[in-house]
């Protein structure tokens, strides 16, 4: 009995526990179903559906003339829901063969059989998503929209495509570092205008609801929840791609010719600071015969400026001590010492005593150091302060990221020594970028007004200008007008008389400064940096340009010989295409001042036809006269004087035929057997054997010597716009006249 009770007690306990456990499960189910139902439904939904961003189309980057420098091209991932409700078995199997054929013909990556097999298998397996092709161009997408089944669209044909945008530079490496990239080749490195104006270019992303289906594939659903993206704004840069092309090709040829390691070039508009061309090329480590744009040396790398820094040094002395160009400097034999440190000139001077102007023209290191130490030895900080006041120690804060900060040693610097002052004066113990040194030269030429270099002119949206970047003044006056005048004379002298003689323009004047700096020893050999910085036209400065060539490996390493030709190539291109800086060849007043063209004696009606076709004004003494000779009445009118040649012949008197063409003379004199004509030479009649007024008998021989042409050739500059060109009809008429005798 006790055993039975014990067993029952245990059974009841187990039953109670089971019931309690069941109640707790039911309770939890109720809580999940009714109290926490919404929460878990949303969480479950999040595992199968999700909002994805729709990338906005990034804005374009244009050059100053509207050429595309960077743009976003759309590419698409295309797919198909082969089991959408609208596609019945009959519709699918009636069209799948044709669809497979079209896809194979368009992409040529798979055979018709392979496409057919993929689509049929997906239909059989109940798949809701089949990737047809990735990276489809916009043009091919439009073709796909006309294919069987796909032409029915998303709901009825199951056709779905997702857009991605790929950034392209139509001109490839031209100005590549300046235009820039975001996350270059997946490295995470970003640079150039793409970074500086990222917020302007990127636009606003949209979003799309997508559902995860078998195979961990996401497909878009429910168009009602889709928010379209807003495309980014466009920017118009200051770069002129035509000049950029010349700059990069000339720089490339120079680097190859001299076997240099790298080089840079910048062309700037002086009054606005607009950068029209900027090139940076570095030897390709994988192919040493080629060069790439892989670093913006012009903006991001500060190096020793060398002799181009002599202008800031002399400008400082002119400002602080009114240094005159005719002041005499004794350079001795072209060497001097500062605390046992030697300074020497690369070329032995012709004379030991030269002027300040000649010091600059001949780029005398000794001369510059003597000038600066003469005035600043007792107070070198005054020299440094003047350089700082002119902004040479401050970055330009340009829009392109990565600008290197300049470095000009202060007297408080621990490394300052007794040789620092003379060394800095001719371009050592300092670091400055090519853009910074160019901007200083531009400021001096711009009457002392320093502008901030700018790379972008406008921000636009669908052609509408949203923002304009106006020229910005950094320093209204880095030096006085008197100093500006002296500096211009010195820079013009460099090209006319000094180290830059080979850089003279053919029809315009160039001014500037050559530079050659020692960079250090590489493999036991001294390396150099050759540069030229200048402006043109010298009499009316419009553009400034700097060329820097680093580590040329040949025997030539001086600035004029290496960098100068590149400067000239770019200057020639700009000058030839910039009409606003050309001197007017023929103003309106000058055009009318040119005498009207001389005209041979000939038939009046035909002559009037030709003059009318050429739009040359004429006036006749007798409009009914058959034969006339031409002469000038004023600067724009031809006077046609009557020639009674036929009446003279009828009287038996020899006419004056000098100046007439041979054909006209033959027509007149041999007509009706008046005279027998013998010709010698070619051209118009210069003399006649029988003098005018002499009586003759029919058949008398006359010898005409030919050789004189028009005394005043027809000058196209004497004609107005459109003159001097015979159209199709007048040209034919002239040919017909020649047959009769009027050439």
Structure description:
- The protein has 743 residues and is an alpha+beta fold.
- The protein has 4 domains: 2-35; 52-237, Penicillin-binding protein 2a (Domain 2), CATH 3.90.1310.10; 246-581, DD-peptidase/beta-lactamase superfamily (Beta-lactamase, 3-Layer(aba) Sandwich); 597-740, no CATH class.
- Helix content is 35%, strand content 24%.
- The protein contains 25 helices and 31 strands.
- The strands form 9 sheets. Strands 2, 3, 4, 5, 8, 19 and 20 form a 7-stranded mixed β-sheet that branches. Strands 11-10-9-24-23-22 form a 6-stranded antiparallel β-sheet, with helices on both faces. A 4-stranded mixed β-sheet has the order 25-27-28-26, with helices on one face.
- A hairpin with a 6-residue loop joins strand 23 and strand 24.
- It is flat and about 175 Å long.
Topology:
Layout: H1 2-35, H2 37-48, E1 49-54, E2 61-62, E3 68-80, H3 89-107, H4 112-125, E4 130-137, H5 138-144, H6 153-157, E5 159-168, H7 176-179, H8 193-196, H9 198-201, E6 206-213, E7 217-220, E8 234-237, H10 241-258, E9 262-269, E10 275-283, E11 291-292, H11 297-300, H12 310-321, E12 328-330, E13 335-338, E14 341-344, E15 353-355, H13 356-361, H14 365-376, H15 380-389, E16 407-408, H16 420-425, E17 430-431, H17 434-445, E18 450-451, E19 456-461, E20 464-468, E21 473-475, H18 481-496, E22 511-522, E23 525-536, E24 543-550, H19 559-562, H20 564-577, H21 588-593, E25 602-603, H22 604-613, E26 617-620, E27 627-632, E28 637-642, H23 645-650, H24 662-669, E29 675-680, E30 684-688, E31 700-708, H25 728-740
Parallel strand pairs: 2-8, 26-28, 29-31
Antiparallel strand pairs: 1-6, 2-3, 3-4, 3-5, 6-7, 8-19, 9-10, 9-24, 10-11, 12-15, 13-14, 16-17, 18-21, 19-20, 22-23, 23-24, 25-27, 27-28, 30-31
Helix pairs in contact: 3-4, 10-20, 12-14, 22-25
